[in-house]
């Protein structure tokens, strides 16, 4: 089990991918990228793998792309047996190694905990989670009444996101809350 200090370190990192399965016999893994720029793996020298029991520092030795996945080779693993148990493990980076954001951009990772307000400046609730779907992300909002509402991250619905002030302004589309 991961200790409290390691949990706190992980909480301050950014997830860039999730291991899906081994690839080949030489310790490579297929990774589903959770970053908006999968090419960023080419610039990664070091990543952190979060397992159920520990946080491992891994050194990227090779990067290939296949369809919508990234195939990674780490110096620490040389055989398929080394990576068979890594299914669904997160790949993380330190926040200071993240890609530079343009003005108005934000990391989805930073949105949970933000308060959500409608166009009348009425508190709707708080972002509890972010679902990453194929089309667009979805903010899972826990309303002040305890209900869970899904807000698609599209211009018609999400008007602004201000991470510094922990605030999300939304337009409530017909039928979204009712």
Describe the protein in words.
- The protein has helices at about 5-10, 80-85; strands at about 15-25, 30-35, 45-50, 55-65, 70-75, 90-95, 115, 125-130, 135-145, 150, 160, 165-170.
- A six-stranded antiparallel beta barrel has the order 1-2-5-4-3-6. It has a six-stranded mixed β-sheet with strand order 10-9-8-7-12-11, with no helix packed on it.
- The chain is about 5% helix and about 45% strand.
- With about 180 residues, the chain is mostly beta strands.
Compact summary:
It contains two helices and twelve strands. The chain has helices at about 5-10, 80-85; strands at about 15-25, 30-35, 45-50, 55-65, 70-75, 90-95, 115, 125-130, 135-145, 150, 160, 165-170.
Between the first and last Cα atoms, what is the distance in angstroms? 42 Å
Q: Let me know the largest β-sheet.
A: 6 strands, antiparallel, barrel
Parts with pLDDT < 50 across at least 5 consecutive residues: none
**What's the SSE pattern?**
HEEEEEHEEEEEEE
- With helices defined by DSSP (H or I, 4 residues minimum), what is the helix count? 2
Content of β-strand: 35-45%
For the largest sheet, list the strands in their spatial order.
1-2-5-4-3-6
Number-wise, the strands total 12
Task: Bin the helical content.
Answer: under 10%
Kindly state the mean pLDDT as a whole number?
90
- Helix and strand content put the structural class at mainly beta
Radius of gyration equals 19 Å
Shape: elongated
